[in-house]
Protein 1
Amino acid sequence: MFSKILIANRGEIAIRIIRACKEMGIETVAVFSEADKSAMHVALADESICIGSAEASKSYLDAERIVSAALATKVQAIHPGYGFLSESSRLAALCEKNQIAFIGPKSQVLSKVGDKDKARQVMSAAGIKVIPGTGILADEKEALDAAEKIGYPVMLKARAGREGKGLRVVNEPADIEISFQMASREAQDAFGDGAMYMEKCIVPARHIEVQLIIDELGHTVCLGERDSSVQRNYQKLLDEAPSPGCSEAVRLELYELAQKAAKAADYIGVGSVEFLVDTDENIFFMEINLGLQAEHGVSEQVTSIDIVKWQIRIAAGVALDFTQDDIVLRGCSIQCRINATATGKVAFLHLPGGPEVRFDSALWNGYEMPSYYDMLLGKLMVHAATREEAIRKMHAALCELVIDGVKKNIDEHIGLVSDSKFQSGAYHVDFIARKVSSINAHETKSVKRLEG
């Protein structure tokens, strides 16, 4: 087992990893930018080292700086968390070159399926159904021709995109050119890669991901599925496990396909496989999420498996000490991503409590949000014996959560879990878009009545 790990991330996920390491008796090194010198993850780690200025490209996204910090502090391994460099084949290769363990997939696996276009090819070759689409598009004209063949609506997607960046839905030919240019430019700015491909836009559908854990001996365990269909602009807002919309037959097929996908990718470690499931229960592969995911906590709550600890153990060569037969899914877990809608300073903070209520966050009273990074304030999770009870518990926890001084989306989440469509479990990826459209239509009618 490792005795010292550097955490190449910030915020709540860095703190989550630090806490796991403390319980495992592992020393930690935090990296931080100049904007994060007073951040909580820096205070909680055993050591810390500044790796650059506030801009992510000059600190958290600089693989060479991360490895230099690891060498300077004499760590045995680097944990990238999620986001930033967690899917970087370059960082993984640099770790291998310098004999530092990378707590994530091998560099060749990252190269193989971290590229979403390549991943589609690998899965197709393995006999796994992918969403109808194209390879990398040369330009807007090729995109226009491809859309005519696929049929509208289509999705333009960046090869390197994630969290909704580099993605545009196009409903008609007139919008192809500008959508292609905007999505490509956004991906280039965010990931240094503006290459685009296209997929058929399948709506309505559910966004389901299957959590896997695989050791170096090839032992594979499925930790159930998560439903991530509640999204705004293709960024996940609410996740729950298990999915309320999956029949048992679909659930078992998802598990089988996820394991088949991992085998095709030669995957080792912790990861999840994302699928779209349409209303006819057709299942389409979307992508492999490499390493730890922001929504891993809901899988932990329904399985009682500490995914972060096992990710570290597997990277150290430890074999799983449980099998699929040991996994029993308990009750329901729901996670709400509490995001800021503008930067600000936390004037007062009160966190909800009670059995099986969890808030992963890096906030503290007086904390001032940097403007350089994502707007995530924390991840509120609850677990209960039934979905109905979990929804009520989440509603209560949201009402109890107070983050004064920062504009945030708590009220939006209260509205989501109170919505009859969500409570029924019969929602899809267009749930929020339809909800917003309905509200706008109602407001328009009200204005017309007033004007009349």
Protein 2
Amino acid sequence: MTSDLFKRYVWLIDVVNQAGKLTYEEISNLWERSPLNEDRSPLALRTFHNHREVVEGLFGIKIACNRKGGNYYYIAESGESKHSSKLKIWMLQTLSNSHALSNISSAQSRVLANVNPDEKFGLAATIEAMELGVCVKILNSVPMTADHLTEFTIEPYCVRFWGNSWYLLGKRHGKDDMLVFDFSRILNLDISDIKFTYDESFEPVKFFKNYYGMDVDPQLEPVTIRLRIGDGTRDLIRTQQLHDSQKEVMADYDSSIFEYHLVPGEEFKRRILSMGDDAEVVSPQELRNEMAERIRRMSEKYAR
């Protein structure tokens, strides 16, 4: 596959994914304006269908057509394939962006990113261990348990990208408790020869649905939380949801109330505080009181 063809395939996936649904005519019009199309030629129907077939065969991403709803094309995904498709699209976009950056010179100094060279330490080895069904041995920089252990034999259950880091979720070998490891804090990770049986009933997406980010505590039950978000932040929250359970249940001219169903862990509380006076916990009362106490203590520091 040539570099140009690869970029065309990624472009097609990207425009359909971003739009949600597009007709062939709309896709062809976008192609005529694309920087990849130097001669501004239309996208031939036969070429378009050929690209769809290659994208599905090569990347496992199906661009389907809803013929009853106006011949719209969309990324077909359901059940487990929904998460899988998103991951594949993200990986392809990352490769495409990397390739684009390698081909520029004058603009390279104007493309900035916060890069932590250690944040992916052990990621490839962990994925290999998941494929092999074996444990990984981890030396962590931060004690993870009450007895201040830093060395672990972990059954790797899944990896997840959250915020600016990759994380590993796994069980301590021979135990039932789940632990979360930030790859950026792992000092050493080795693939072991210790076999383990992965629980096929475990569903990573379902496991995380009650939590915000990687703040996992199976001992706590999710609760319904309502936040009042001011006009300066609510448009951002509407487009970049804090959590999959988010619902906008009331809107005024200067604020909205958003509802969530999750475990209000430390990471979620800090996210609320990060919005300053644009965020207010409406309910439950226990969480509202806790946030009020935190804000009071913060205020006292500035009153000295």
Protein 3
Amino acid sequence: MPPNSRAGAAPFPAELAGAMPGLPDPADLYMALDLGTNSCRMLIAQPKGSQFHVVDSFSKSVQLGQGLEASGFLSRQAMRRTLNALKVCRAKLDRHGVKRMRLVATEACRRAKNGKSFLKTVARETGFELEVIAPDEEARLAVISCAPLVSPKTEQLLVVDIGGGSTELVWIDLSRVQKIERPRAIMRLKTGFTPDPSSPFPTAHVVDWISVPLGVSTLRDQFVDVDNDAARFALMSCCFEECLAEFSPYEAEQTREGFQIIGTSGTVTTVAASHLGLVRYDRTKVDGLRMTSDQIDKVINKYLDLGPQGRRADPRIGNGRHALIMSGAAILQALLRIWPTDRLTVADRGLREGLLYAQMSADGVLEDGVY
């Protein structure tokens, strides 16, 4: 399946940005649910200034896309696991009395031949009406979730969201935006990748974006028949790099000065936790951490030295991620081979946060302050 790429993407329709009829109460709770190829994630939050305060959360590895690459269908076991997780989310929603929400599904439900049928089952058994969002919207939501992590020194920004079934890359030129306005300019991309020429605010220029239909699950499944661990890793990394050939910044040489990559995914946060030596994961130490290409390479080489059994036993990787970490690391290594950087920023945030920002901003309950 070829990557999706289109720099001139249309703005979000108001209803897709999360706007709801009626005057919102600033005390209202909001819910965002992201059903991906590998995980089911949910956040319930309340607006707080230009950010939000998390009231409740849920994250579960459901492996919805397990076997999808080979069969084209969601398996019964995967759908059962996912339904059980969604029922937990439903209980939390009912407990908190949340009325304002956005519930989305991504690559697995986009690709599966029985994806629509499964979503009807979800609606029947949980009451959740999940919408399957397009890759360009998935990319935009990932970008705006990372706005608070954009450095005022950044002139060229690459946001990378490594998912279970796909990977989104968005390249943004901030060189014409005043330094103090750069995080806010990223947040304003919620209205679309094509800036509004009548807007009085500074705008970020999206040079190009791409959605590669390879994530940690789908890339691993393509090379599951390769026995040698190091050879499989090398093949995965080269395969992913080949998919970037049509991404316009692929041939562009970048200086490290003024260039920032923000990586949002379980792969990036796991690599960061390994770099810090965290046996127990601590989001406060990981989110916003900056790493160099050399530091990331050191962690990945350690993973290779450990081998499959060593990675399984390593508490910094964890039982839930050891089978997927090398496919994610192969994607990360390919990116750093093309664009080496001393400023890769680790983001423990993603689609859920983007959904919340978009809903709250559309409802007018977020202040336009410093992110």
